[in-house]
Design a protein that fits this description.
By secondary structure, this protein is of the alpha/beta class. The protein has helices spanning 95-105, 122-133, 150-156, 173-180, 235-238, 264-270, 276-294; strands at 8-15, 19-24, 29-33, 45-49, 52-55, 62-65, 71-75, 80-85, 109-114, 138-141, 162-166, 205-209, 215-218. The chain is 23% helix and 22% strand. Bound molecules: guanosine-5'-triphosphate, magnesium ion (MG) and zinc ion. The site of zinc ion has 7 residues, from helix 6.
Length: 299
């Protein structure tokens, strides 16, 4: 076969909207134009021929629904999901639950990473999140600035494991990557002093290899994280904190655990085994999913 007609396999390592960067398996990198019809995300495997490429089947894809109801893929071939939060900016209500549900449906191992441990309020946030989530998921108090806890993150991202950081703009996702990879120099942005919000600095998703052998993907911050790969009827099965209650069966097979008689979730709620706040978070996500299911919006 001639040089020109042979195809080469690689991985998408950056997505610029109109083009992608691909790293071939021999380590060489190239930039290729993206056609409108081509849907690939960082982490996807592709087969490149000249200027063209075709995406190979993917797995471990993290998807979310944006505020317009559109389904967006975040990254592919993932093993780990780091849900990054910070004392400032505060993450939207339900962000962690949505992230955990999305991780469970995509079969990813999730962790809550509380960044900016050097700031006042970090300890209180840690105590609050530990109260709610420590039975369900590992929680780390870390800092990109002081490097606290970064060694643990490196060992989590050990050889052959690929992770992605998600979190609202300004929580420090890019700063964490810069701290984990001293040669990297991703742009980081100041928090707006009036609104306390980030400035949406990162606009491109990029994949980076760590010394520990793992890989980590930086993403632009987004406020909405509506899970997509789960229907309203299945939500409870994936909802963090409902596991023990759902070892028993509700009276109705299609129980949504809202107000139905003979519901084991509501019984656990009444007996204090499920906190009110957890059930309220479930109801809010259930409502969003039902709305998305009834909306004829573009997929
Ligand atoms: N005090 C403190 N500030 C931090 C820490 N990590 C990041 N920051 C600051 O938080 C701000 C936002 O950081 P970025 O890394 O740009 O946040 P991001 O999550 O990548 O934001 P987007 O790209 O907009 O989604 C910057 O001013 C950082 O210096 C930390 O550990 N401690
Ligand atoms: Mg960033
Ligand atoms: Zn029920």
């Amino acid at each position: 076969m001639s040089e020109l007609s042979s195809s080469q396999a690689g991985t998408v390592i950056a997505h610029y909207g109109i083009a992608v960067a691909v790293r071939f398996d021999d380590g060489q990198e190239t930039r290729l134009p993206l056609k409108r019809s081509q849907a690939v995300v960082v982490g996807d495997r592709v087969e490149v021929q000249g200027e063209g490429f075709r995406a190979l089947p993917s797995a471990g894809v993290l998807r979310r629904r944006d505020s317009h109801g559109r389904v967006r893929s975040v990254a592919a071939h993932l093993d780990l999901l780091g849900i990054v939060v910070a004392p400032i900016p505060i993450s939207p209500v339900g962000f962690i639950d949505r992230g955990l549900v999305a991780a469970r449906t995509a079969n990813l191992e999730a962790r809550i990473l509380i960044n900016k441990s050097d700031l006042p309020g970090a300890e209180a946030l840690h105590a609050d999140l530990s109260d709610r989530y420590s039975d369900l998921v590992e929680i780390d108090l870390i800092s990109a600035h002081t490097q606290k806890g970064l060694k643990e993150i490196c060992s989590w991202l050990s050889e052959g494991r690929r992770g992605v950081f998600v979190g609202t703009s300004g929580v420090g996702k890019s700063s964490l990557l810069n701290a984990l990879l001293p040669d990297l120099d991703l742009d980081v942005g100041e928090i707006n002093e009036v609104s306390g919000l980030g400035r949406h600095v990162t606009s491109v998703a990029t994949l980076h290899s760590l010394e520990s052998g793992g890989e980590l993907i930086d993403t632009p911050g987004f406020r909405d994280f509506g899970p997509v790969a789960v229907s309203s009827g299945e939500l409870a099965t994936y909802f963090p904190g409902f596991e023990a209650a759902l070892e028993y069966r509700c009276h109705f097979r299609n129980c949504l655990h809202v107000s139905e008689p003979g519901c084991v979730v509501l019984q656990a709620l009444a007996e204090g085994r499920i906190q009110e706040e957890r059930h309220a978070a479930y109801l809010s996500l259930l409502k969003d999913l039902q709305q998305a299911e009834s909306d004829p919006l573009p997929k």
